Amino acid sequence: MVRWLILAVVVIALTAIATLVANFMPATNPAGAFKISSKEGPAPKVVVEGNSSFDFGTMSQKTTGTHSWTVRNEGNADLELWMLSSTCACTIAKFADKQRAIVKPGESTKIDLEWETRETVGEFSKGATIGTNDPAQPSFPLNVKGIVHPPVVLIPNDGTITMEIVSSDEVKTVNGALFAPDQPRLKILKITSSNPNHVIVTPTPLSEAELKTLKVGGGYKLAVEVRSGMPLGIFREEVVIETDNKLAPEVRLLVSGMVVGPISVLPELLRLVNVTSDRGGSGEATILVRGGRPTKFEVARKPAKFEVEIAPSETGTLKGRYRVKVTIPPGTPSGRIEETIILKTDHPKAAELSIPVRALVLGGSKG
To answer: Which are the contacts of 361, defined by CB distance < 8 A and separation ≥ 6?
Structure first.
């Protein structure tokens, strides 16, 4: 009897609690769950004025450029800015307080991007990524691009004037150009040739039409002249042009080609193979004199370690032929040899003949 009385009291208590909870709960809950509302706090809003990519046009090598962007805070909390990353160590973003900037709501700041062109030639593209505390835009890029040129530009661009075939009894001239895009009044101080008697470079100011074509404010036309009397055979001469440009005080021009005339050498380049330090080695070339004219040859210049022999190699039907034997003696140190033998002749139209020789001397016998 007591047990049933206790059970009745418990049921009455639970019913009362359920009624109390029901009175304080909403009548309906379509979502089937509690809704928790939250109100967003103040936040910054970053706005970059203008294009985030800047085209600087053209710049010289070994120079530094800068460009500024204005960044506004259109939010209602302080905006923080810092450099998150950059494409290379040559590109740095600078802020109002060096490492970062804090921009109050409604205010703006400047971000300077500084870049170094260094040794780049041609297309240039660098940039930095700026970090922010704007929850809607945690970062944004700033980029620069353009074309980088040498401080002093030489045409042809590879710095080589190729004369190709040059007659020994004629003068051949090929034109080039020299100018500094950032220094219209560039001055040439001195020109030095490795063969001043036969390879001459004469500068003259570029004409108005040439300046317009090259799109520069000043510069020089270079007349590269190979005069008659050059030794027959392949030649490579260097011309050094000194200027008043601080970044490029010297510009080097290579002049190359082959001089032909009444005397020719086959092969044009003598390569000695199977040369060793203990055995030495040798190779042969043939000299051909046009018209079969008897000609005397004298060794004017050769490496001290070379032996050069010249002898007639005529037949009953082939006149004006001579055999040249070049010997590298035993005991020559191993290594690469690049030399030129100069022969003087008594031919009225070919005073000198050059024979380039190439060899690789190995350290021991191959046999």
So the answer is: 275, 276, 277, 281, 328, 332, 333, 334, 335, 336, 337
Residue bearing tokens 């040739």:
193
Q: What is the pLDDT of residue 365?
A: 57
State the CATH class of domain 263-362: mainly beta
CATH topology of domain 153-260: Immunoglobulin-like (2.60.40)
Ranges for all domains in the chain classified under CATH 2.60.40.10: 46-149, 153-260
For 233-274, write each residue's pLDDT tens digit: 889 999 999 999 999 999 999 999 999 889 989 998 999 999
Mean pLDDT taken over the chain? 87
Helix (H) or strand (E) holding 213, with range, is helix 208-214
CB 111 within 8 A of CB 101: yes
* Residue of 306, 263, 261, 301 whose CA lies nearest to 283: 306
β-bridge mates for residue 309, sequence order: 325
Distance (Å, rounded) from C-alpha 202 to C-alpha 191? 9
Beginning with the edge strand found earlier in the chain, give each strand of the sheet holding 263-266 in spatial order. Answer: 263-266, 281-289, 321-328, 307-312
The CATH architecture to which 46-149 belongs is: Sandwich (2.60)
Whether pLDDT at 190 is above 60: yes
**Which residue shows structure tokens 């950032």?**
182
- Which pLDDT score, from 0 to 100, does residue 229 have? 84
Look up residue 308 and give its two tokens.
């050069």
Q: Which residue has the higher pLDDT, 28 or 106?
A: 106
At residue 186, the 3 state secondary structure works out as coil
